[in-house]
Amino acid sequence: MLGMLGDEWTLLLIQRALLGARRYGEFAAALPVSNSVLSARLQSLVTDGFLIRLEYQTNPSRSEYLVTPRSRSLWPMLVSIWEWERRWVADHAEQLPGMRHEVCGGDFAPQTTCLSCNGAASEKDVTAQWGPSGGWGRSIPATSNRRRSGGRRSGAVALFPQTMSVIGDRWAFALLVAAFVGVSRFTDFQAQLGAPPSTVAARLSVFTDEGILLSTGNGYRLTDKGRAFFPVLVTALQWTQRWYPDPDGPAVVLTHTVCGGRFAPVLVCDQCRKPLRGAQVAPA
């Protein structure tokens, strides 16, 4: 998941495709992206199975890009990211719009529920353990993400600035997951992740500066803002285990302690309480 989606532009292009963009000009008009970057990312999305390129004109050649089931099923993660950035991140050039549920017509916030019992779920009542194919070694990509651009902040990072500080970095995402499962001390982060001390220190510094973690006398703990990232983590995990299954079994097993059942996230509208569907969500 990090290798595929931990990129400044990829998630935004998928989001625009899900909102109806198909042609090159539509993507270019919607996002502050250069032609060279846009062409490269669209090609990567085709190669990775997120988009299908279909030629609709031959002279001159013109193509459109259609979403696949793989990209269409990313909408819970995208909705969760949008809500977290809108609620918790202030440094946007323009205020992010809200979301409208077209079933009830209300401006809504997505709420996370448990598929097993339909009850509300949060990081406080969902536990995680490694499955047959899991472990920190598999959770941290062996190489840096493929399509990161240098050290300069791109326009996409400015749109989702703090989300990219988490999922755009292979160590940062793993460190935040470790915080969610109870790791708090510097030495424990280092031991669990197998990361160099300087790497752990740098990521902890970013998260404390952004208010995701709070440094205490005994270590680090998640803030309210950090805990609010829970829906992004569980929807990302759900998508990854669906599209990249391991024959040995799941990498991570989540349990909803309220009902005792296997936890799978379901997003519902906080206005009408009905399950959300990607095609029914629009900018407010």
Automatic annotation (TrEMBL):
Record has DNA-binding as a keyword: yes
Record key words, sorted: DNA-binding, Transcription, Transcription regulation
Coiled-coil region(s): none
UniProt xrefs under Pfam families: HxlR
Keyword Transcription regulation set for record: yes
GO molecular function ontology, one term from the record: DNA binding
Domain HTH hxlR-type: 1-93, 157-248
Domain of life: Bacteria
Region of interest: Disordered: 133-152
Name of the protein: Putative HTH-type transcriptional regulator
